[in-house]
């Protein structure tokens, strides 16, 4: 039975279409909804809407659901639509009358807002930690080869000399930007929407929303209930946009590594343990992991655009379209976390070939330095530029 069932007959096809795959996606939100429900039940006891015994029963039941979920034994049926219904039905079946009281003072709207908020905040924390690990691995590799010379490229042609340390450290610096961005997004998310109901507050009862926020580890309450519900979709977009930024860094690093690990370059070598093979060519060692990371950037960007497009043109107040953003957010987090883990394996396992790097250091890359030496001797830069260009066969001056 759905939480909104009032006894009227609704076409089963409408129910199935409305539920979609949300009941499957909501398996990911069960522990967060239990966490929020425990805070809600504790608050209801503090304001006298639940007895101490009822609150204790509910907390014990919610903890049991979380344990079942951790073992893979808590199943959300398609007919239940979402985790909120499944959890409430379990409580009614196992706790009794107290289970029928837990929904007072909240709506599925602020329930899902809160569960998603907790999921997003925790997931951003994992992405931050994984980004830190990758950044540390990149800096270690850069430091180990800080003075190894290699060509720097523009327009995919040799341009000027650089060093392996400079090249690799640039990616760690980019990830530092992403870490600061994660902090800003996390700070934005760090607000409790629970107690805002369907978007216009809870009548009659004076809920202690500050207590709920403290219990959930959120720094403050979203006082304006309309504001709280307008963040649905906006915060999802913020999260996925931040993920697409770190995925862009991984995409660029993977592209470099794919190129520089080609035998024709040989600056980077990948161990067999990080490569796959060919079904027909026995000599092949394929860097599939890097190709997939490169491609997954576009997957995350697609999810970002999906979230932003779905949440545009919606009037104030909850609209069912918003539920379609849930899959994009979960998928974007999953993809980003796995790509960060894979790139850390690659960076830790790859080796730099200093001989190949030095062999690629051809004379023409010193052209700018030669021109500047002439400038130091008193020649105008444009004259020096043309003279050095002729020397190195440059036909575009």
Describe this structure in words.
By secondary structure, the chain is mainly alpha-helical. It is built from 16 helices and 6 strands. The chain folds into 3 domains: 12-101, Orthogonal Bundle (Fumarase C, Chain B, domain 1), CATH 1.10.275.10; 108-359, Fumarase/aspartase (Central domain) (Fumarase C, Chain A, domain 2, Up-down Bundle), CATH 1.20.200; 363-397, no CATH class. The strands form 3 sheets. A two-stranded antiparallel ribbon has the order 1-2. A two-stranded parallel sheet has the order 3-4. The chain has a two-stranded antiparallel sheet with strand order 5-6. It is elongated. The N and C termini lie far apart (76 Å).
Q: Residue ranges: pLDDT <50 for 5 or more in a row?
A: none
Gyration radius, to the nearest Å?
28 Å
Shape: elongated
- Spatial ordering of strands, largest sheet: 1-2
The CATH topology of the largest domain turns out to be Fumarase C, Chain A, domain 2
Q: Alpha-carbon distance between the termini?
A: 76 Å
Beta strands, count: 6
Query: Topology as H/E string?
Result: HHHHHHHEEHEHEHHEHHEHHH
Largest sheet: 2 strands, antiparallel
CATH class of the largest domain: Mainly Alpha
Strands, helices and their partners?
Elements: H1 12-19, H2 22-25, H3 30-46, H4 52-70, H5 83-95, H6 97-101, H7 108-144, E1 149-154, E2 157-163, H8 164-189, E3 191-192, H9 209-216, E4 220-221, H10 225-230, H11 234-260, E5 268-269, H12 288-310, H13 325-349, E6 351-352, H14 354-359, H15 367-376, H16 381-391
Parallel strand pairs: 3-4
Antiparallel strand pairs: 1-2, 5-6
Helix pairs in contact: 3-4, 3-7, 3-9, 4-5, 7-8, 7-11, 7-13, 8-11, 11-12, 11-13, 12-13, 15-16
